[in-house]
């Protein structure tokens, strides 16, 4: 059992680290990193990706009326990444990024490691197993990919106009790749796996800046087979 002080420390650190670009923890207070992750993004960002059924729920017995979070014991049905079971425990905080689970229901979960605690939230692709057939198909495609991935993202917020044709440059250790944003400011480019720095070049010179809560840090991204790091840039 994690005592109250320990859970408070975990929650404070989750909030603080969520404000840092590139951290695996995500923001509470309904502030999620942007863009919303595709499966090929979240798969490699997660410490554990698996399906399973919730068999037990617990929290601090002294905080039944206002728990800081819940721990769920899950019987693993299939592990795609990370621990393979037979049981895995995950945690979600009692905040607006919470992802409450129901006992005796089965889920597909993408869990993040934070200080040896597996943490789940509502900012990604976790959901009921019965609704996850297409997501599992995408996971299997990632696992079957032997080489190459994709760099993707957007410039501006949402599908706001005005960011078409922005030059996106991915600087690798030996090669440089580039593409342009589409009419909605979105971009994607196929690249070999490896490490990259990504820049969004504004018309007339200069750069668009990474959004404070960009999903991946453009200054250092790692493309793995079948993976697709995502990032968001904003005008200065």
Would you kindly provide a written description of the structure presented here, covering whatever features stand out?
The chain has two domains: 4-143, OB fold (Dihydrolipoamide Acetyltransferase, E2P) (Beta Barrel); 148-234, Immunoglobulin-like, CATH 2.60.40. 14% of the residues lie in helices and 37% in strands. It has three helices and 14 strands. Strands 7, 8, 9, 10, 11, 12, 13 and 14 form an eight-stranded mixed sheet that branches. Strands 1-2-3-5-4 form a five-stranded mixed barrel. The radius of gyration is 19 Å and the shape is globular.
* Total domain units: 2
| Total count of strands | 14
Proportion of strand residues: 35-45%
Give the biggest sheet. Answer: 8 strands, mixed
Query: How much helix, percentage-wise, in residues?
Result: 10-25%
Give the radius of gyration. Answer: 19 Å
Gross geometry? globular
Please report the first level of CATH classification, the CATH class of the largest domain: Mainly Beta
Helix count, per DSSP? Answer: 3
Q: Label the structural class.
A: mainly beta
Assigned CATH architecture of the largest domain:
Beta Barrel
Mean pLDDT: 86
Low-confidence residue ranges: 1-30
Query: How many angstroms does the end-to-end distance come to?
Result: 46 Å
Order of helices and strands: HHEEEEEEHEEEEEEEE
CATH topology of the largest domain: OB fold (Dihydrolipoamide Acetyltransferase, E2P)
């Amino acid at each position: 059992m994690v005592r109250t002080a320990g859970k408070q420390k975990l929650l404070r650190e989750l909030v603080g680290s969520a404000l840092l670009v590139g951290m695996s923890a995500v923001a509470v207070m309904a502030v999620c990193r942007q863009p919303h992750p595709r499966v090929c993004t979240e798969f490699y960002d997660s410490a554990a990706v698996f399906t399973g059924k919730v068999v037990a729920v617990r929290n601090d017995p002294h905080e039944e009326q206002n728990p800081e979070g819940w721990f769920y014991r899950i019987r693993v049905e299939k592990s795609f990444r990370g621990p393979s079971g037979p049981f895995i425990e995950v945690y979600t905080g009692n905040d607006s990024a919470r992802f409450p689970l129901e006992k005796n229901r089965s889920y597909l979960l993408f869990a993040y490691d934070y200080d040896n605690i597996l943490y789940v939230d509502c900012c990604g692709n976790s959901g009921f197993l019965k609704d996850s057939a297409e997501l599992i198909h995408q996971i299997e495609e990632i696992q079957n990919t032997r080489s190459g991935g994709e760099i993707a993202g957007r410039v501006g917020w949402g599908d706001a106009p005005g960011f078409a044709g922005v030059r996106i440059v991915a600087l690798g250790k030996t090669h440089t790749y580039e593409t342009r944003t589409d009419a909605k400011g979105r971009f994607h480019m196929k690249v070999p796996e490896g490490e990259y720095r990504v820049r969004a070049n504004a018309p007339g010179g200069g750069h668009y800046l990474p959004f404070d809560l960009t999903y991946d840090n453009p200054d250092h991204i790692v493309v793995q087979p079948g993976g697709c790091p995502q990032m968001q840039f904003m005008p200065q």
